[in-house]
Specification:
Elements (H helix, E strand, L loop, with lengths): L3 E5 L4 H17 L2 E8 L4 H10 L12 H16 L4 E7 L2 H11 L4 E5 L13 H9 L3 E5 L3
Parallel strand pairs: 1-2, 1-4, 2-3, 4-5
Length: about 150
Amino acid sequence: MFKTVVVGTDGSETATQAVRQAVELAKALGASMEIVSAYEPVPAQRLRQERRETPEELQWAINPREDVESTLEAAAEIAREAGLEANTHPRQGDPADAVLDVAEERGADLIVVGNKGMTGAKRFLLGSVPNKVSHHAPCSVLIIRTT
């Protein structure tokens, strides 16, 4: 039924809960796991400054998407701990668009997203990412209650 599962993460605790649920589901179904994280580009001036302040042997690690790489690695580690390999996809731009693009490219059967911490009067509204994903997904969407 579900052969490819896509999950988005920004490294937050609520997103990590969604990753854990997606990993459990993918493992139970024997599905492949695709983990997506979006990033905004780091300005070139900031990169130059960080390189000047960093020892030469570590300067290679300073790049426009260094933060997203660590976010994806942490999510992939959750999958590995469950005995599941995961493909990671760093994408520049809007998080919902990143998830939707990867889902389309990989022919996903299911997208998993968290409901993103809505409380009080906002409890009737989804966060912007799950809302956009649920309205534009090329496949089924599972919204995990993370709050």
